């Protein structure tokens, strides 16, 4: 069950092929805001992208960046600078709101993911 209300769940979904992960996206000409919810644990490999700021709503996330592992829980926020490689592990029931400093980032990511499948 999503922690987000209907007004958020009516936004477009990212369409990523990650079991148990749902991301609703609010697009603008300069950035995206993601409403992310994971029903199952997610272990996402090292990657890099535009600057990202997130705030944890429920559950826990572990972010490894520049050899340092940090854990964040409800109410915590984090910042990932542009181009810095990182990996993430999310607990089941994890939810967050994320600001990404790039328009259509997940649209391109989802399209690339589908092309690989």
UniProtKB/TrEMBL annotation:
Query: What InterPro entries does this protein's entry cite?
Result: Cupin_2 (IPR013096), RmlC-like_jellyroll (IPR014710), RmlC_Cupin_sf (IPR011051)
Task: Tell me the keywords, alphabetical order.
Answer: Plasmid
The record's listing under SUPFAM superfamilies reads: RmlC-like cupins (SSF51182)
Q: Which residues form the Cupin type-2 domain?
A: 46-89
Q: Which Gene3D superfamilies match?
A: Jelly Rolls
| Tree of life domain | Bacteria
Q: What is this protein called?
A: Cupin domain-containing protein
Biological source species: Azospirillum brasilense
